[in-house]
Amino acid sequence: MADRSIISILIAQKLEISEQQWLKIETLVSLLKPLQVITSLLCGEKHSPTSMVRPLLKKLLDNHLKPQDNDDQSINYFKQTIISDIKERFNLEWDSESRVSIRQIASFLDPRYNNLDHESIIARESIRSSVISLLNNTETDAHNVNTRREPSLQKSALEFLYGDDVTEVNDLTTEFQNYLAEPQLKFDLNPFDWWKSRVDKYLGIGILAKKYLSIPARVAHQ
Question: Which segment of the chain is annotated as a signal peptide (predicted)?
Fold first, then answer.
């Protein structure tokens, strides 16, 4: 724009960006940066499980795109547009007709997000109920509920007194309750290492976790 032999003064004046416009551009660029970061996290790493999608989007909306009182009209409009698009694209809003998604189940099975803090209270209950249903449909030799034990060579005194009618406790229910009581893993730790060290403790839930955490975040429809 400094070469007046190419651009006339009038055109140059029209092309020049004011200080206020530069500030607005810088603000827009800073707002776009978190979108670039989350895209890299979900699509660029070797394996980012789908369990990360909803928790990270919630952090994005709450920490980086929440409208502020000092936002001017254009910035506020930009934020509201992005927020609306993200919520619609990823079905982040929960209502009476919502159905539990693969991403929501995966987040519950990810020890970094098992508290489901990123979901509404009503959604949390539905997600947990869905996981319980999946557990009840999971067939493993280690989780035969109310079945007779194999005769053992050494029985405890109580087993001897109760005879052959000793039944197993519902191990799946116990597993589920124990998993709920687990402290949430720090967000930057590896959920796969966590599960690897607890494979014997959570046989039933572990099967579900292995299945759902193997789904990559970049899979479009979940």
Answer: none
For 26-59, the three-class secondary structure string (H helix, E strand, C coil) is: HHHHHHHHHHHHHHHHHHHCCCCEHHHHHHHHHH
Task: At 146, list the tokens.
Answer: 């109310």
- Vertex 119, ends 114 and 120: CA angle to 5°? 130
The whole-number pLDDT of residue 23 equals: 83
Return the H-helix or E-strand segment holding 183: none
* Angle 209-102-197 from CA coordinates, rounded to 5°: 15
Looking from the CA of 34 toward its CB, the CA atoms found within 13 Å total 18
* Between residues 142 and 66, the one the model is more confident about: 66
* Alpha helices (H) in the chain, listed in sequence order: 9-15, 19-44, 53-63, 73-89, 102-109, 121-136, 157-162, 171-181, 191-196, 203-212
By CB atoms closer than 10 A (0-12, 13-18, 19+), residue 200 is exposed
User: pLDDT for 56-71, tens place per residue?
Assistant: 999 999 999 999 999 9
The answer to whether 146 and 135 have CB atoms below 8 angstroms apart is no
DSSP bridge partners of 148: 167
Exposed / middle / buried, residue 164 (Cβ in 10 Å: 0-12, 13-18, 19+): exposed
Residues in contact with 1: Cβ distance below 8 Å, sequence separation at least 6, in sequence order: 7, 12, 15, 16
Residue 181 contacts by C-beta under 8 Å, 6 or more apart in sequence? none
Global pTM value:
0.78
Look up residue 97 and give its DSSP letter: T
- How far the first Cα of the chain sits from its last, in Å, is 49
